[in-house]
TrEMBL record:
GO terms for molecular function: hydrolase activity. Residues 3-205 form the Carboxyltransferase domain. This is Allophanate hydrolase subunit 1. Keywords: ATP-binding, Hydrolase, Nucleotide-binding. The keyword Lipid biosynthesis does not apply. It comes from Billgrantia bachuensis.
């Protein structure tokens, strides 16, 4: 692995560790995140890990561009991947049903599988949280089984309800609050991701693992879930 450092703004550097998305990247990205935070200390304004990169925003009033580059290079010299125990594991209960997951039919037809089999397969593995973005508490997760991979909708919805669980290509995610979106909706959870993020305590963080668990409508309602149907995308 040979990190590449690319300028993104006057005081922002993009540290690229990989060129392709892979679950095996995460231990390296987490180790780099920790090393860079230690190297920059109070001169670090923000550090955002993603699938293959880390975006580093530093205080340019305290460090020159050359000094920032030197700190990055020294921090990543001899980098070793983080231990497998880093990151939490979360089980997210989901009500999978065409009334709140209208693309269940689309995904099933594309894969040549039944809806029940789509649900089983979506729940049958842990997903790594690669990055946060789009909305507070929104975690980009993967990788979804190849058979379930489905392209985004041609026309995004104007409103996707909070708690909607969706897939796009080989990624999966949960919408933390009502927002526009073009992913394929499979179901809905009552876990309040946005409330966690609003308190400054995001439930999902890069490096965490998520396992979805199918629940009944009755259980979903007991957990406070909203059963308002969502129309199929046009």
């Amino acid at each position: 692995m040979r990190p590449r450092i690319e300028p993104a703004a006057m005081d922002v550097l993009m540290v690229r560790l990989f060129d392709t998305i892979d679950e095996e990247n995460m231990p390296w990205l987490l180790a780099a995140d920790r090393a860079l935070r230690e190297a920059f200390g109070s001169w670090l304004i923000d550090l955002v890990p993603s699938y293959t990169t880390l975006m580093l925003h530093y205080d340019c009033l305290c460090l020159t561009h050359a000094e920032a580059l030197q700190r990055i290079e020294r921090a990543l010299e001899g980098l070793e991947p983080a231990g497998a125990g880093l990151g939490q594991r979360h089980e997210i209960p989901v009500w999978y049903d065409p009334s709140v997951g209208p693309e269940l039919v689309r995904v099933a037809e594309r894969a040549g599988l039944t809806i029940d089999e789509i649900v089983r397969r979506h729940c049958d593995r842990d997903y790594r949280v690669f990055a946060l973005g789009f909305a507070p508490g929104y975690g980009f997760m993967g990788l979804v089984e190849e058979a379930l991979a489905t392209p985004r909708l041609n026309t995004p919805r104007r409103r996707v309800p909070a708690g909607s669980v969706a897939i796009a290509e080989r990624q999966t995610a949960i919408y933390p609050l009502q927002s526009p979106g073009g992913w394929n909706i499979l179901g809905r959870t009552a876990v309040p991701l946005f409330e966690h993020a609003r308190r400054g305590e995001p439930l999902l963080l890069p490096g965490d693992r998520v396992r979805f668990a199918a629940i009944s409508r009755d259980e979903f309602e007991r957990q406070g879930g909203d059963t308002t149907p969502l129309e199929s995308a046009s």
